[in-house]
Amino acid sequence: MFVITNDDGIDAPGIRSLLTAVRQMDLEAIVVAPSSQFSGCGHQVTTTKPIRVERRSNYEYAIAGTPVDCVRIALSQLCPQVEGVLSGINAGGNLGTDVYISGTVAAVREAAMHRIPSIALSNYRQRTCEIDWSIATSLAIRVLEQLLSDSMEPGTYWNVNLPQYSAQSSEPKLIFCPPCTQPLPNTFRLEENCFYYSGEYTERTYDVGADVETCFSGNIAITQLSL
Phi first, then psi: what are they for 73, rounded to 5°? Predict the structure, then answer.
């Protein structure tokens, strides 16, 4: 049994895309995901207030908590005998140093702490472009078939970024690469004594051959991370 979660919320199209991919692979899965969006929450956990759990169906649980809360509750209460944790598909890239901010990646990092195989999937998108979730599903299947066939070292996890892709694009390659170590743009504008972040994601500096360059060039960036 696989646990599927995300940080965009249980009703997001990306988690439906990932669930479709898993079902097409004839894998058993339950969805344990936040009841609302927690994008950019990192490895935040809830320890000082109750966490409401809503069972929506025999395979869906909406959790009033963070992605890491979802994984913790899934592993300890809902699905103790889990084969793996899959998080995503995030609407937007989680490349390089994004992994320290991302709730999508934090969910699989938590699973890795429990020595459970885990994969985070995100779909990079340019600002004015929409994600074709049917294409994302087919790309996710390619990735999962590759990664689930291999064993993982304890304490490691996969971070996968699908490119902005359309039916007119060249078929993306699966490229195993290191994470980019460059920072996100550190740009702000000042208005009436308040700073507003104005960095452009696509203008970030990146390492040659790392995941940012790989994904921006139209290929699937697959990075192995460790605790």
Answer: -70, -40
